[in-house]
Amino acid sequence: MKSTREVVDYTREVVPEASPPPAIDEGIYGWMVRLTPHVDLEKQMARDAIIHRQSLEHAIAMGDKNVIRYEECPNCSCWSLFWRYEEDQAACVNRYCTDRLGRPNLWTLGQIAEHHVAAKYAARRTAT
Ligand SMILES: [Zn+2]
Predict the structure, then answer these.
(1) Protein residues within 5 Å, CB atom, of ion ligand 1
(2) What is the block-wise mean pLDDT of the chain (128 residues), using blocks of 10 residues?
(3) pTM exceeds 0.70
(4) CA dihedral for 15, 108, 99, 97, sign (positive or negative)
């Protein structure tokens, strides 16, 4: 499975001496997180963004495009994203959140996941 391969590749890159991945997919995220608590913050954020993006990809592949409604727009931080299957991206419907030609800003799941993780880590920093 492509998503499993990505998780294995990431983990082996940051932890070359990593134990073999679990045989079944159910344990793959736990394996990655368990082996990477020591990597620097940027790499931890990249790891968490992989997990979050893949969960969004799986939900959308199952037809649950509403998962995108629970994500902030990376530009305006509003809860204003709608999934567009034809473009395979989310569009922001905030009328002030447009590109320089006045079209809605479009976001990939990767961009949305990176924004989600960055906001989570920023909240964690201010909470301590
Ligand atoms: Zn926006």
Answers:
(1) 73, 75-76, 92, 94, 97
(2) 86 91 77 93 96 94 92 96 95 95 96 97 82
(3) yes
(4) negative
